[in-house]
Amino acid sequence: MHKLNGVYGSALWVMERQFRKVDVRVSDQIGALREEFKSESGLVSRRMPAVLGPVLLWSSRREEKRLARGKTYDPPTILERKNWAEA
């Protein structure tokens, strides 16, 4: 739990804002989870989203734009045939 304190709260903060565009109900549920997590964990989880959250939000939006432009992480498909005479 100690390792997750800052990063998890920041990730929830970003998810809450990103899902607002898609589904407000899901965004509200994520916000409730974030508040519950904040109340259960320490001081770091309360302060870290203010610092790390905007950076994660910026990088997730940047990645979303890259994927929309066609960037992919899958390797190209390679087709090898050994028996060309039979095909």
Write up what this structure looks like.
With 87 residues, the protein is mainly α. It has one domain (5-68). Helix content is 67%, strand content 0%. The protein is built from 3 helices and no strands. The chain starts with a helix and ends in a 19-residue tail after the last helix.
Q: How would you sum up this structure in a few lines?
A:
By secondary structure, the protein is mainly α. It has helices spanning 5-19, 24-40, 43-68.
Average pLDDT figure: 84
How many helices does DSSP assign? Answer: 3
**Head-to-tail CA distance between termini:** 58 Å
Q: Which structural category fits the helices and strands?
A: mainly alpha
The gross shape turns out to be elongated
Major β-sheet, in short? none
Specify the helix fraction band.
Answer: 55-70%
Give the SSE string. HHH
Give the tally of structural domains. 1
Quaternary structure classification: single chain
User: How many beta-strand segments?
Assistant: 0
Q: Which percent range describes the beta-strand content?
A: under 5%
Radius of gyration, CA atoms, in whole angstroms:
20 Å
Could you list the spans in which at least 5 consecutive residues all have pLDDT below 50?
Answer: none
